[in-house]
Amino acid sequence: MRRLFPLPTEPSVPPAAPDREWGLDELAEAYAYPERPQSVSGAYLRANMVSSLDGAAHHDGRSKPLSSETDMRIFGMLRGLADAVVVGAETVRQEGYRPARAREAFAERRAALGQPPAPAIAVVSASLELDFAAPLFTEPLVPTVVITGAQAAEDRVEAAKAAGARVVRAGSGPSGRVDVAAVPAALAELGHTRLLTEGGPRLLAQFVTAGVLDELCLAVAPLMVAGDAARIANGPLAAEPEQFALASVLEDAGFLFTRYRRIYP
C-alpha cells in the first residue's frame, strides 16, 4: 500500500511514497475520527463503500465480489474505530450481517476512548421485518440497536426487545418512516458519537439527502461489472449537491482507497 495524497511535505521524505504493507495502528491513525464533530447532532457519521470502475455498488446483489484483502482490512479497521455501525435492513438481509467482534489489536485503543470491546450494530428498519433469532440479535457483545419510526407495530417492537435489542424511535410523522436526519442524534444520546454506515445504497442516499453525512470512505475497485447494479447512493435526489473535499488517497494492487470530508459553510 502507498499513499498518493496528501504527499509528505518534509524535504527529507522522497516524493514517491514507498509501496509496503501498513499495520493496523498506522491505518487507524490515518482514519482517526475528529475530536470534535462539526455537526449539530454531536456525532460524526462516516460511510464506507466500495464501487467498481463503472459505478456498481455490488455484483449480483453482494458487495464482497468487488472487495480485496486490503479492502477487508480497512473494513475491519473502520469497525474497530467506530462506536456503532449503522446499516439498512435490506443490507442486513442481503449480506447476512453478524455482530461485530472484539479485536485484540483495538482493545487498548477502544478502552482508552471509553468504548466497549466491539461496536454496536444499529439497524434502520421502519417495518422491523427482521429475523430476531439471527446471531445479530442473539450473539452480540454489545446489544444490537434497532432504529425505527413512530408507527412500528408494537408486536415487532416487543419481539426486538425480547431478543435483547435496544429499540430507538427516530421520527414522529404519520408515515411511519424513519427520519434518517434524526439517526445520528438518536445514537449520540446512547453515547455512540463515532458512527460508521456500511449502507446499503438506499440508506446512504437518505443520509446524503438529509445532509447528515460527514465523510465518505470510498474504495474504487479495478473491476468492470456492467449490469444494472445500483450506485453507492441510490435514492431520492438531493435538493442541492453536497460538497466534499478530498482528504486522502491510498493505493494497493490497483484499488484506490479515498476519503472525502464534507465541507461545512
UniProtKB/TrEMBL annotation:
Alphabetically, the GO molecular function entries are: 5-amino-6-(5-phosphoribosylamino)uracil reductase activity
The UniProt keyword set, sorted, is:
NADP, Oxidoreductase
Bacterial bifunctional deaminase-reductase C-terminal domain: which residues? 44-233
- To which pathway does this protein belong? Cofactor biosynthesis; riboflavin biosynthesis
- Which Gene3D superfamilies does this chain map to? Dihydrofolate Reductase, subunit A (3.40.430.10)
- Any single biological process term in GO: riboflavin biosynthetic process
| InterPro entries reported in the protein's UniProt record | DHFR-like_dom_sf (IPR024072), RibDG_C (IPR002734), Riboflavin_Biosynth_HTPR (IPR050765)
Q: Which SUPFAM superfamilies match?
A: Dihydrofolate reductase-like
Kindly provide the name given to this protein in its UniProt entry.
Answer: Pyrimidine reductase family protein
Q: Native species of this protein?
A: Streptomyces botrytidirepellens
